[in-house]
Amino acid sequence: MGIVSQEAINQFRALMDQVDEPLQNTFQNIHQGYHTETLVRFLKAREWNLPKSHKMLVDCLHWRVQNEIDKILSHNERTHDAFVIACLVITFLSVQKPIVPANFYRGVRDSQLIGMSGYSREGLPVFAIGVGLSTFDKASVHYYVQSHIQINEYRDRVILPSASKKHGRPITTCVKVLDMTGLKLSALSQIKLLTIISTIDDLNYPEKTNTYYIVNAPYIFSACWKVVKPLLQERTRKKIQVLQGSGRDELLKIMDFESLPHFCRREGSGSSRHSDANNCFSLDHPFHQQLYNYIKQQSMISEPVEPIKQGSFHVDLPEPAAEGKDIAKTIESELHRIENGNGLSESLNGLKVTDT
C-alpha cells in the first residue's frame, strides 16, 4: 500500500473517530474488528476520494440507524417453533417486526433464489444466485429487499468473521455465481426491484464481492451484456466473468467440487428450486438451516416485546444513482428491441454466449 493510500486511511480513521455514539455502534457491526479493511472498501468505492468516501460511509451509518439494520438478525418475540421459521430472512428489520405465516416465508424463498454452496480454496464464501428463475412474485418489493439485506448482514457478521478466524487473516469478500438459466424477456418486469437491490448494495455494502461469475447464459443475456458492459465502471467490469455453459471447469480452478453450486455440477444441469439435496436454494440446505438456528438463538437472548401488525415496517428504498438508472434504461431498451424487433420467443435458454 502506497504512502498516499496509507495517509488517506489514517485521515479517514480520524474522521470516523469523531462520529457520535449511535453511528460508532453500528460501525462496529460493519467492520467486525477489521477497521482498516472496511475503510479501504469505502475508499475504493469512491476512487480514493476521501471526502466522498467519508460522506458515503456516514450516510451508510445513518441508513443503518434509521432502519434498525443492527437488529435484523434477531427478533424478541418468544413464540412457538412453528412460527419462528417465519422470522427468517424476510420478516424482521427491528425488534418490532411482524410474524408472518411460514408458507409466506417459503414463498419468498422459492421466488428469490439465493444460497451459499461452500468456499473457494482461498476461503471466500461462494454465494449462488438463481437470477433467471427468480420470479419475485410472491410478496411486495419490501419483503424481497428485507430478505436481501438480512442475508447480507448474516454474511458480514457471521460467515466472513468465521472464515477470517479459520484462516487467520481478514476475509472480507465473497464470490458470487449467477445462474441465468430460464432468463426470459419477462425479466423486464423485475428491473425496478433489481435496481433497488443493486443500489442498496452499492451504497451500503461496497466492494463485498471479489468476482461475479455468470453461468448458463442464454442469448438474451449476451445481447444485454454487450450494451451494458461499456456503461460499467472499469473496476466493476473487471470483477465480472461470463463463463461458457455451466462454468464447471473454470470454477473448479478456484473451488472444490463440493463447493460448486448445484447448477454448475454438470453441463446443462440448470437451476432447481427443489429436489436436489445439494440445492443451496432449498430451505433444507445447511446454509438456510444454520441461518434459521442463528436467528432462533438470537431471539432467545433478547428481551420480549409486543409484535405489531404484519407489513407495518418498511426499509427506506434508495433512489438509484444516475449510472444505475442509465443501465436499467439500457437493459429495458435492449429487451424491448429483442422482443419487438427480432421476434424472438421468450424461451432462449438453450442459446450460448458467443464471447466471454
Automatic annotation (TrEMBL):
Coiled coil: none
Domain CRAL-TRIO span(s) in chain numbering: 101-261
Superkingdom classification of source: Eukaryota
Gene3D superfamilies (UniProt xref): CRAL-TRIO lipid binding domain (3.40.525.10)
Pfam annotation, one family: CRAL_TRIO_N
InterPro entries per the UniProt record, alphabetical: CRAL-TRIO_dom, CRAL-TRIO_dom_sf, CRAL/TRIO_N_dom, CRAL/TRIO_N_dom_sf
UniProt name for this protein: CRAL-TRIO domain-containing protein
